[in-house]
Structure formats: C-alpha cells, structure tokens
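Pyridoxal phosphate-dependent aminotransferase: structure tokens wanted.
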Amino acid sequence: MNEPLVARMREFGTTIFSEMTALAVRTGSINLGQGFPDTDGPASMLEHAVTAIRGGLNQYPPGPGMPELRQAVAEHRKQHYGLLYEPDGEILVTVGATEALAASVLALCEAGDEVILFEPYYDSYAAAVALSGAVRRTVALRPAGDRFTFDPDELRAAVGPRTRAILVNSPHNPTGTVFTRDELALVAAVCQEHDLIAITDEVYEHLTFDGVEHVPMATLPGMRERTVMISSAGKTFSATGWKIGWVCGPPELVAAVQSVKQFLTFTSGAPWQVAVAHALREELGWVAGARDALAAKRDRLMAGLSAAGFGVYRPAGTYFVQTDIRPLGFTDGAELARRLPELAGVVAVPTQVFYDHPELGRQFLRFAFCKKDEIIDEAVMRLARLGRAE
Ligand SMILES: *Cc1c(COP(=O)(O)O)cnc(C)c1O
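Answer:
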C-alpha cells in the first residue's frame, strides 16, 4: 500500500508528548516533558464523579453538554470576568480544549483560508488547521527580558485577504508568558480592522503567578461578538485525563462549532461533566491553593535550572519554564533533549518542535514543574551534572 495517511497530515508525526513520555519510560528518567500534574484535583470533585457513576449517570449527555455544567460555566464567566453567556446556545461542552480547538477551526475556516498562530504554539493548532484545509501563518514570540512577546508590525504583516482567524493562547504554553492587556488590545484591533475571529485558548486561565492577571480576549471592547473562548477543566482542576472542556461565544459561532463537534464525538463524559460543574461552583479555593503551590514549584525548578547553568525565563503562568541551553555549551535543544536521559536521567521537550521556523527556537528547552517537590528536587540534582560534564 502507498502511504495510507492523507497528505495534509503527513508533516505531523507522533506528538512530541507521546515521544518524550515514551523516552522517559524507556530510560527510567524523570519526565519533566509532558505537562500533567502528579497529584489529584479536589477530593469532592472526584467523589462527585464516583457518585454520578454509581447513581447511574452513564448514558449520553445532551449534545451541548450537561445543563448543570453549562450553568456553572456561565456563572463562573460572570463572576470572574463579568462576561455574560447564555447556557443555552452560547456554551458548548467539548472533549477537552483539544476538541474545542479542532472543532472551532474545522467549523469556521474554509479550505484556503488563513489562520494566524503565534509561534511557538501548542502542537494541536497546526494539525487542526491542516485538517481543515486552511493555511497557517505564524507570528514569532521572541524573548524580551524575562518574557516573550511579538512585534505588532509582524502581526499586521501576517494578515492578508484570506485571513480568517487568529488563535491566541494566553497564558501561553510553552513560554509561560501571559499577554498583557496592551498586547491583547493590539490583537483585538487587528481582528476588528480585518473582521477576523479570535479563537482563544485559555486553559491556564487560573494558573497565573505573582498577582499577574489573566485577561480574557472577550472582555476587550468589541471582542465578545467575534471571540470563541476555550477553557478546560484539565489544567484548572488537575484532571488532564478527564478531557472536559468548553467553548463560550456568540450564538452563531457556537452553533457553527457544535455543527462540527456533534459529528466528531457528539458528546462525552457525563459523570465528569457534573463533577466539573460542582468544582467550578465549590472548589475555586482549591484552585487558588494549587496555583500558589505551583508558583512555589516554579521557583524551586527555576532556581535549580539556573544553578545547573541554564538560562531561565520566568513564567507568569502555566506549568512550564522555558530555558536557554547555550550557557551550558549546547546549541540544539532537539539534540540535547534526546541525550538528556543519558546525561542526566531527565526528559524535557525541545521547544523548536512548536515552531514553523524551528531556527527561532533551537536554543530552548521546556521543563514542566507541575510535579511533586521531591521529583523536582531529584531532577534538579541530576541536572546539576550537566554543567560538570562540559
Ligand atoms: C493542555 C493544553 C491543551 C489541551 O487541553 P485538554 O483539555 O487536555 O484537551 C490545550 N492547549 C494548551 C495550551 C494546553 O497546554
């Protein structure tokens, strides 16, 4: 048989996360590659799922999602952001943010349309754009002091007659940057000038540090009506295996996304949906505690990486710290990531895989700090060997 995979998907191999996690398992290394926490979410949320399963909530939930979850999402948007969304018609529950992103791009972009991504980008974006037959244009995020940002002229230059949407991820994986209100306003202005849709990936909305505020794009003037806002319970409630996400937006955009979503999965996870509804209502205190613990883990890992000789950027949010490997005498993150298990018994992710222009990210390695303190300490101890090996 000829290559069975359709041409538009051939540039995408196995996701880097599977590859690096397999490498960690094979070599017995500490996995600071994939961003999943090694502790559970709030106990009452877990109990709610168990109770729901025992109580017989085991058949298809409604296509748009369990009403109580959509209601809880609406209340949460209102309380946190002052954003009003109708549970019926403006909120759609999805199989994690991943399905929300894919369904949004598939629903809203025609073949040949262009979608602007900030690179480095979360790897599913490019695949979703390719599946839809649309074309991606990238705008680089470059280091500026401790964080990463974009050049507004570069953003404007990326817009053309076929541009349909801009995909914005803040807090940003993999750089840890949280876009400021001014940066978001620049993106918003471009969306409004060129009548573009903003698709926003806000899965780390609650995981910002040092008092840095997460500003949803939809709260900017004129943006609610053109923004598809995507969130997920996975990162917020430390339950990445549950895959419960949601889309909020104006009715015509959400209806379009649902048209696609219904034929991808129709619906999913009834017991998890009601458990997440409970957590959104009752467990945001737990989330605040988890965020503070995460900030401390960030500091712990940053200190260790600096001591080991890495250049370290200070993330204002997310699970990840971005490092520069050049102070250690290395130049290529992909090569170092492959050798890191043998050199130090640790796995990290080469940031260059998140670029269309990998040369922009060759020197970066991404480490996850959503791990137990003793795991971080052990990783740091092992990484200290690196400097000595040179
Ligand atoms: C983890 C992650 C996702 C995927 O979210 P799920 O709810 O697990 O599908 C999407 N975007 C970013 C930036 C992520 O880090």
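The chain has a mean pLDDT of 96. The first strand starts at residue 30 and ends at 31.

Cheers.
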